[in-house]
Design brief:
alpha/beta, TIM Barrel
């Protein structure tokens, strides 16, 4: 039974990876998860300088998921290169580094620094507010999506995955813009903007007022967007958004995802990624599927 998938020229032993921001850089989950069994580990977002993130409270539980407004807190590229990459290279898994920034130059600086590092792919988080464009996220304007993709590609030595925001009118417009800019792959969806109010204190549950909704509540939206995007572009897609079980993962693959990322579910069950790997194998056995390629985009 073959579970290997090809992501922009990089072969993963299986399609299961972690979603950025939900797994640190692997170290805090290593005692619960055998990282060698994962297709890839996607790190928490890293910027050119350390980011403090947003004020607390930053997390709130909701029906079927959670809201977060962590604000991409991270130690910066220097510490990341010194500490996190050496840790991950000890494991037999692919390393995908998530990159964030406030300006195009911020992103390019991180990508330049990673060019000589032993990492396999770069995932560019374009849900960050673009300070040069008055705070609107890079990923909400197709011209910005194409422009930042094109700039990042100039400096990238590894294949580039553009991570798309669902907070747009037409996801396929953003996907095509990223492809036009030279993206090697896409990942979607990032969180959906939401809000929660504490009715007893009559105040916002998050200091930031709004946050990103993730978890099972967004899964049907994510499946729809992955399917639409798979019809619109010719580059591989990493599907994510509310994947809790192997069934959820297979749904994403049938919709057109070459690989999948598991995020919020890690907080509830740290071993969930390994259970999903096993569940995909069980499904393939049950239905006599010899090669996972047979499932990618196979929905009729």
């Amino acid at each position: 039974m073959n579970t290997k998938v090809n992501l922009a020229g990089v072969t993963l032993k299986n399609p299961v990876m972690t979603a950025s921001g939900t797994f640190g850089s692997g170290a805090e989950f290593a005692e619960f998860v055998d990282l060698n069994r994962l297709g890839a580990v996607v790190t928490k977002g890293v910027a050119n300088v350390p980011w403090e993130g947003n004020p607390t409270p930053r997390i709130a539980e909701t029906y079927g998921g959670m809201l977060n407004a962590v604000g991409l807190q991270n130690p910066g590229i220097d510490l990341f290169v010194e500490r996190d990459i050496p840790f991950l290279t000890k494991y037999d898994t692919k390393i995908i580094v998530n990159v964030c920034g406030r300006t195009t130059e911020d992103y390019c600086e991180v990508v330049r620094r990673l060019a000589s590092q032993p990492v396999d792919l770069l995932e560019i988080n374009i849900s960050c507010p673009n300070v040069e464009e008055g705070g609107i996220a890079f990923g909400q304007n197709p011209k910005s999506v194409e422009a930042i993709t094109r700039e990042v590609k100039k400096y990238a030595k590894q294949p580039v995955i553009m991570k798309l925001s669902p907070n747009v009118t037409d996801i396929t417009e953003m996907a095509k813009a990223a492809e036009a800019g030279g993206a090697d792959a896409l990942s979607l969806i990032n969180t959906i903007t939401g809000m929660k109010i504490d009715i007893h204190r009559r105040t916002f549950a998050l200091a930031n007022k709004t946050g990103g909704l993730s978890g099972p509540a967004i899964h049907p939206v994510a499946v729809r967007m992955v399917y639409q995007t798979a019809q619109a572009v010719n580059i591989p897609i990493i599907g994510m958004g509310g994947i809790l079980t192997a069934e959820d993962a297979i749904e994403m693959i049938l919709a057109g995802a070459t690989a999948i990322s598991v995020g919020t579910a890690n907080f509830r069950n740290p071993a969930v990624t390994m259970e999903i790997v096993e569940g995909i194998c069980d499904y393939m056995e049950q239905y006599g599927v010899n090669d996972i390629q047979e499932l990618i985009g196979a929905v009729k």
